[in-house]
TrEMBL record:
Pfam families in the record: Peptidase_M4, Peptidase_M4_C
A GO molecular-function annotation: metalloendopeptidase activity
Active site: 174, 275
Domain of life: Bacteria
Naturally occurring in which organism (per UniProt): Streptomyces phaeofaciens
One GO biological process term: proteolysis
Gene3D superfamilies: 3.10.170.10, Neutral Protease Domain 2
Taxonomy of the source species: Bacteria, Bacillati, Actinomycetota, Actinomycetes, Kitasatosporales
Protein name in UniProt: Neutral metalloproteinase
């Protein structure tokens, strides 16, 4: 018996399929080879998820109150594909020689910290779920993912992508897919899918800002800064401040994200543009957070978290449904007389999402 009726885990990789598709068509085998291998591996993993999901969800619930400490274990796949691999760092152990292991450990800790300290949430499931991660997965693997049970990081091919543990927001992005699965469970297609992606970018960015102690004005609002190889013309995978400007590279192409509904992309690829149109709710969050000022996780983040976990957000929500709930949550949290709900309303207006 499972208590997770309708629960559909997302197999979300950091690098969207449309980016790898383009790389796989490149004339240079040094570029197309790793991209092709990564695509094949990802499709195998996606298929395997469907088979094993039921078992992982039927796991027995914890009996005691969850701890305020994370429970992290880092494994090393040694460039193979066996998961989880060899245990290399358990919770509470000192850092070792391998910087990748140490970054994965810190990234899991930073994610746990934001959700606990800002929102009193205990881990991904709200019930102290242990956080496991495997590093050095496969050879030249151009991706990182959360498979519903653990995080997995590739080292990149060194040509286009480098070590995926380099971006703390990438780690936060993937783990937030877990939070979404356990809460609003947004369907991974079209607008609800783009909202699902946006939740992961929003909390991924907040995890980075929280760990660095940055205000909304100080933050770079980039997702995946540090995972592009030095020769790539670009700063990151996505920009919440200026969607569509993260990269413009002869091999990688141009960042396809719109910032407003005027440029909404209708496509069947990428699950109906989940990594593309997420630029619109991403930008709305950026506008609300910077208008409110201070630390973004305290006001805008709290409002978004209230909507994600509050129980009113439908798995099939459109942007307009989500926008309406954020305005409602802002009023409930901060009152009818405050600036908060007005800032949220204005942010959605600026990206062209009408609130019904
Ligand atoms: Zn994602």
């Amino acid at each position: 018996m499972t208590t997770h009726g309708g629960f559909e885990p997302v197999f979300c990789t950091v690098v969207p399929p449309h980016v790898l598709d383009r790389l796989a068509r490149n004339d240079d085998p040094a570029l197309s080879g790793p991209a092709r291998r990564t695509l094949v591996r990802d499709s195998e993993l996606r298929a395997r998820r469907r088979v094993t999901t039921e078992f992982s969800l039927a796991a027995a619930p914890a009996v005691k109150a969850p701890s305020d400490q994370p429970l992290r274990t880092i494994y090393d796949a040694g460039h193979g594909t066996e998961l989880p691999g060899t245990e290399v760092r358990a919770e509470g152990r000192d850092p070792g020689q391998d910087a990748t292991v140490n970054r994965a450990y810190s990234g899991l800790g930073a994610t746990f910290d934001l959700f606990l300290k800002a929102y009193r949430r205990h881990s991904i499931d709200g019930d102290g779920l242990p956080l496991d991660a495997t590093v050095h997965y496969d050879e030249g693997y151009n991706n990182a993912f959360w498979n519903g049970e653990q995080m997995v990081f590739g080292d990149g091919d060194g040509e286009i992508f480098v070590d995926f543990t380099n971006s703390i927001d990438v780690i936060g992005h993937e783990l937030t897919h877990g939070v979404t699965q356990y809460t609003a469970n947004l369907t991974y297609y079209g607008q609800p899918g783009a909202l699902n992606e946006s939740m992961s970018d929003v909390f991924g960015a907040l995890i980075k800002q929280y760990s660095l102690g940055q205000t909304a004005a100080e933050a770079d609002w980039l997702i995946g800064a540090g995972i592009l190889a030095p020769d790539v013309t670009g700063t990151a995978l996505r920009s919440m401040k200026a969607p569509g400007t993260a990269y413009d590279d002869d091999v990688l192409g141009k960042d396809p994200q719109p910032a407003t509904m005027d440029d909404y992309v209708r496509t069947g690829r990428d699950n109906g543009g989940v990594h593309i149109n997420s630029g619109i709710p991403n930008h709305a969050f950026y506008l609300a957070a910077t208008a409110l000022g201070g630390y973004a996780w305290e006001k805008a983040g709290l409002i978004w978290y209230d909507v994600l976990t509050g129980g009113e957000l439908s798995p099939k929500a459109f942007f307009t449904d989500f926008a309406g709930l954020t305005v409602k949550a802002a009023r409930e949290r901060f009152g009818d007389g405050g600036d908060e709900f007005q800032a949220v309303e204005k942010a959605w207006e600026q990206v062209g999402v009408r609130i019904l």
